[in-house]
Amino acid sequence: MRTNIIRKERMSVSYDMVNGWTVVEIDGDVDAHTSPLVREAVIRLVDEGHRHFVLDLSFVSFLDSMGLGVIVAVTKRIREREGALRIAAASARIVRVFDISGLREAYEIHPSPEEATRQAPSLGRLAHWPRPAS
Question: Which domains does the chain have, with CATH numbers?
Answer without folding.
Answer: 3-116 (3.30.750.24)
